[in-house]
Amino acid sequence: MNTNLPAERSREVEADPIANPGLPAHTWRPTDVDPHAERRAERQVALLFGLSAVCTLGFLVSYFALSIGEGGDTFLNLGASTVALGLFMSGAFLFMGIGVIQWARKLMSDQEITEERHAAASPQEDRDATLEALSAGLEESGIGRRSLVRNSLLGAMALIALPPIVLLRDLGPLPGDALTRTIWTRGMRIARDVLGTPIRPSDMEIGDLINAEPEAIFEVDDNGEHVIEGAELQVAKSKSAVVVVRMEPDEIIPGPGRENWSVAGIVAYSKICTHVGCPISLYERTTHHLLCPCHQSTFDLADAGKVIFGPAARALPQLPITVDDEGYLVARSDFTEPVGPSFWERDSE
Amino acid sequence: MLTPFRFERGPPVSIDTGRFARSNRTEAATAKKPSRVGGVAIWADERLGLGTAMKKNLRKVFPDHWSFMLGEIALWSFVVLLLTGVFLTLWFQPSMSEVTYEGSYDQLRGIQMSQAYASTLHISFEVRGGLLVRQMHHWAAMIFIAGMLIHLIRVFVTGAFRKPRELNWVIGCVLLLLGTLEGFTGYSLPDDLLSGTGLRAADGFMKATPVVGTYMSFFLFGGEFPGEVIIPRLYIAHVLLIPGLILALITAHMLLLVYHKHTQWPGPGRTEKNVVGFPMLPVYAAKAGGFFFVILGVVALMGGLLSLNPVWKYGPYDPSKVTAGSQPDWYMGWPDGALRIFPGWESHIFGTTWSWNVFLPIIVLPGLMFTVLVLLPFAEAWITGDKKEHHLLQRPRNAPTRTATMAALMTFYALLWMAGGNDIIAITFDLSINQITHVMRVAVFLGPIVAFLITKRWCISLQRSDQEKLLHGYETGIIMRSPEGGYSERHQPIDAARAYTLAARERDQIHTPPSTADDNGIPAPRSRRKALRAKLSERLYADNVQPPTREELEKAHHDAEHERELRAGLDHAADPHQFDGRHAVEGEELRSH
C-alpha cells in the first residue's frame, strides 16, 4: 500500500502535544469527612423519602375523597380530582427520585474508577476460527457445490414470500370507480347540514353561506330508521358535503359549460378540499374566497372555484344546481368530476 | 490512614479518612460468608450462570456528563408510555361502532359517536385518574420524541456516532421514525374531530402516491375513507406492533451501548483506551433509577396540571366538519409545514394525475430526510477517510463542518415547523398568511445555508480562542502600562489539566487530490471519486484550526517566558492573579473580591 495515502497517514496514532497529566487526585466531600455533614445528608435523604410517602398517602386520600364526573373542568380546566391526583403522584415520584439521587451524590462513593476499553472487533484468532467454522459449515452443507439444490431453494424461497402478501389482499376492496361518484343524483334536494331541511333560494341573503348535504343523508324509512347509516353514512358525508353561497349574479364568472349551474346567484361547491381532503368553510363574503383551515389553500367561489393561493392544484368541483317543482334547491346531477384529493387514476385532463 | 485534603476555602488539614475510604475502594469487597443477598445470588447463579457476566457488569463504569442524560429522558419516558398505555387499554375500546353517548359529560349527551370516542370520554370523565393518565401518556409521548431528537443532536455534534457506533446511530434513527409513527397512530385513536381530520389528511397523502396510492388507501381503510376498520387497525399497530419493534430496538441500542462502553470527554487521565467514571452499582443504578422517578414525577405533574388534547371540546369525528387551526402534534409539524408552503404543482399525463404538491413534501421529503440522517456518519467517514475507532468525544467547535451541518438541518426543520403553524403565526402577529408562505418558500432554502456558514465560522472563531488560550494563556483583565506609555493586557498560562483537555484532540486530515495518471500515463482506478473526496475534504475541513504541535506550544511558551523576563524589572510588583479572583493573595485581601 502507498503509505502516502491520507487514509493510511491518519491511522498513525498521534502523541498528544501536551503530556497526559493523569487523573486528578480525588478530593473528599464534606459528607466523607465530617460526621455532621454525613448525618445531615442522611436526614435530607430520609426527609425526601418521607415526603414521597406523604404524597402517596395524599394520592390515596384524594382518590377516594374527590369525585370525578360532573364538573370535569372546574379547576384549571381540569377536574379537582385530576389535579390533586396529578400533584400527589408527581410529588410521590419526584421526592423518591430526588431522594435516591441525593443519596447517590452525597453518600455513595464519588471516587471515579477506570476501566480499560477493548476494541469492538473480536480478537484476530477468534475471527479466524469463526471464519474457518463458517467455511467448514458451508463446505459440509454443499451449498456452493450443489447448484441445483441451491438454485431451486432460492427459487422456492422467492415464491414463499408471496402467500403472506397475497393474504393481505382482503384488507380492503379494489377502488373501482368508487372515488368518481357521490350519492348526489339528478333532482336530489340540497339539505341544511345538521337540520336536514331543504333550502329555497329566497331563504338565502346575498353573502350567505350554508353548509349542506344531499337530502338522502337524512332520509328515514317507515320505522324512523336512517336509510344510510354507519360507515356508509360517514363515507357519503365525506364526499358529498357542499357549501352553498349566494352572491350578486353578475359577480359570478361561470366556467365554460356551467352557465346554468347557478340559481339567482346561488352556487354550490364541494366542501372537500382538492389538496388532501379537509372540509372547507372559512368563507370571506366580500371576496367570495373560501380558505381551507388545514393547509390554507384558497378558492374563489365566484370564479369556478379556482385556486388563488396555497398548495392545492385543482379548482373545487362545482355541483350543478337548479330548483325543483316546489321551489327547493336540487342538484342537476352528481358532480361531473371526482371530489376531494387527487389520486393517480384520476383523469384530470 | 491520614489523607491530606482541603476544603475549597481553607488551609489543608489532615483528617482520618480510613473509616470512609472503605466505601471508596475501587472494587467491591468480597464477602467471607455469603450474606442474604449473596445467598440469593448464589442460588440464581447455580441455575442461570450469570456470575461471569455480572462479574464485570455490576461495577461497569459509566462516565458522567449532563449531556449523557438526554437519551435517558427518551428511555424513561418510553417506560412511562408503556405503563400509562397499559392502564388506558383497560378501558379504551378501539371500535368505530356507533353508540349514543350517555356518559357524564353534559354537552355531548345524546350525541351519536364511535365507541372509541365514547370510551375516551369515559376514561376522561368517569375513571378516576383516567384523565390524568391519558394526559400523562400524551405528554410522555411528546417528551419521548423531543428526548430522542435532543439526544440525536448531542450524539451528532459530539461525534459520538463515529466508528464503532455507526450502527447504533442507524438504530437510533429508526427509533425516531418508529416513535413518530407511534405518536401518529396514538393520537389518531380517540376518533375526535381533530384526530379524524389528521387521518383524512393521511388518506390524502396516500392517494397522492403514484400508481399504488389509491390501493394503499383502500387497503388501509378497508374501503373508502373513513370506513369502520381504521381505528382497530391503528390500535393494534399502536399497542403491539410498533411498541414491540421499539422495545426490541431499544434493547439492541442499550446492548450495543454496554458493549462499546460509553464515550467520554477528553481530560486528564481520560483517553481513547479507557473509560473513567462511576460504577453502575451503586452510583449509576441509583442515579438512573432516581432519574426514572424524576421523569415519572415531571410527567405526572404535566398530566395533572397541563391540559392536553381535550377531545371532549372537539366533539366526535364528522367527515363534513373541521375546526380552524387544525394541526398535528408538534413532531409531525415539519412535514405539514412543507405541505403548506409547497406550490400547487400537479401533472396530468395520459388520464393519470401526478400530485407533486402532496407527494413530494409529505412522502418523498420525510423519506429523503430520514435517508440523509442515516447516512450522515457514513458520509463523514468517507470524506475524512477515517477508519479509526473513536471513544473520546469532540467538542462541537472542533468539528466545525459537522456542527454546521447539524445547524443547517435544525434550521431546515425549524423553518418547516414554523411553516406548519403559518395560520397561527398570521393570527397571532396579525400578518398576511400569503406573505408568510411566500417568505417561507425562500427561507427554507436560504436559512440552512446561512445557518451553515455562520455556525462554521463561529466554531472556527471558538477554535481560535482555544488556540490563543493554549499558546498565549488566558486574558487576566489586567492592563499593564509600559514606561513608554503603551498599554497591553497581561496573559497568564492556563493550568495544566485545562491545557491538556484543550489540546487533546485529533488533527483533521486533508486529502491531496491523487495524480490522475501514473508514470506510464494510465489513469489511476477510481481517480474521479478520489478527486471528489479530496475536493470535499479540502472544502469542508481546510479552514479548521488544528491543535498546536508540541513544538508550537514549546515555542509559544518560550516566547512568553522571554517576554516576561524582559519586562521583569518593569512590572508592577503585585501578583497578576490578585484581580482575577482565581487565587487569594496573602495580605492583599482588600484588593481581591
Topology of chain B as a string of helices (H) and strands (E): EEHHHEHEEHHHHHHEHHHEEHHHHEEHHH
- The portion of residues assigned to helices of chain B is 55-70%
Shape of chain B: globular
Task: Just name the CATH architecture of one domain in chain A.
Answer: 3-layer Sandwich
Number of structural domains of chain B: 3
- Average pLDDT confidence of chain A is 91
Numbering strands along the chain, what is their spatial order in the largest sheet of chain B? 1-2
* Tally of individual helices of chain B: 20
Please identify the top-level CATH class of one domain in chain A.
Mainly Beta
Assembly of the depicted chains: heterodimer
User: Rough shape of chain A?
Assistant: extended
Q: How does CATH name the architecture of the largest domain in chain B?
A: Up-down Bundle
Instruction: Give the helices and strands of chain A as they follow along the chain.
Output: HHHHEHHHEEHEEEEEEEEE
Give the end-to-end Cα distance of chain A, rounded to a whole number of Å.
62 Å
Helix content of chain A: 25-40%
Report the largest inter-chain contact.
A-B, 118 and 155 residues
Commentary on this structure:
The complex is a heterodimer of chains A (349) and B (593). Among the domains of chain A are: 30-106; 179-331, Rieske Iron-sulfur Protein. Chain A contains 8 helices and 12 strands. Chain A has helices spanning 6-9, 30-33, 35-65, 80-106, 124-141, 147-160, 162-167, 230-240; strands spanning 113-116, 190-192, 209-214, 242-246, 266-270, 282-284, 289-291, 298-300, 306-309, 318-319, 321-323, 329-331. In chain A, the strands form 3 sheets. Chain A has a 5-stranded antiparallel β-sheet with strand order 2-3-4-5-10. Chain A has a 4-stranded antiparallel β-sheet with strand order 6-7-8-9, with no helix packed on it. The two termini of chain A are 62 Å apart. Chain B has helices at residues 18-21, 36-48, 51-57, 70-89, 115-125, 130-157, 166-187, 193-207, 213-221, 230-260, 280-305, 311-314, 333-341, 356-384, 400-419, 422-428, 433-472, 496-503, 527-541, 550-567; strands spanning 2-5, 13-16, 61-62, 98-100, 112-114, 274-279, 347-349, 352-354, 474-481, 487-492. Chain B has a two-stranded antiparallel ribbon with strand order 1-2. A two-stranded antiparallel ribbon of chain B has the order 3-6. Chain B has a two-stranded antiparallel sheet with strand order 4-5. In chain B, strand 9 and strand 10 (487-492) form a beta hairpin. Chain B has 20 helices and 10 strands. Chain B is mostly helical. Chain B folds into 3 domains: 2-57, no CATH class; 65-394, Cytochrome Bc1 Complex, Chain C (Up-down Bundle); 395-508 and 544-593, no CATH class.
